[in-house]
């Protein structure tokens, strides 16, 4: 059916029918848009609770990973995405909430995404800064960056941790669904590393000083 014939047929429709026909023609098929979940699998192991209660700050993601479209790397090294495959939730929010749940599940700790909702302040604050979060052209999903665990207790003497991580998960296929599955697996591995304050990266541990007793200070006047 030629464009001229279609326009001729549309010109013979009543105004309301014409508007409806144009609206239907302009709508995209929602079945062509796939939305993918970030859902870490159960680790199947249990580790000691070294975190206690902790507030997990919003996870910082690279711009390409924070977009709604599922990004991937092509053989030429470029990072690309299509509007046909989207994340089902805001990537930063989904990463934060699932990571908090995964740390809690594997260790028994109480880790909650910011803002902290309980009256009792958390013992620690966790911050994760992701530098790499990409399905690479090699068929491996890479999740890399640094995480920080700061002791928030007012008693002082707590240990603060800064550690890097570089997690690589082989992908079953180079598809958006495989990307979502590999990212979910990588988050599960990261949760275990944070829960145990471990991982293959470099650890920098600092000791927060105990508060000075105000009664031991020399009077100013």
Automatic annotation (TrEMBL):
The protein's name: ABC-type transport auxiliary lipoprotein component domain-containing protein
Domain ABC-type transport auxiliary lipoprotein component: 40-195
Keywords: Signal
Endpoints of the signal sequence: 1-25
Keyword Signal: yes
UniProt cross-references to InterPro entries, sorted A to Z: ABC_trans_aux
Protein source organism: Paracoccus tibetensis
Organism lineage string: Bacteria, Pseudomonadati, Pseudomonadota, Alphaproteobacteria, Rhodobacterales
SUPFAM superfamilies from the UniProt entry: XCC0632-like (SSF159594)
Domain of life: Bacteria
Coiled coil segments of this chain: none
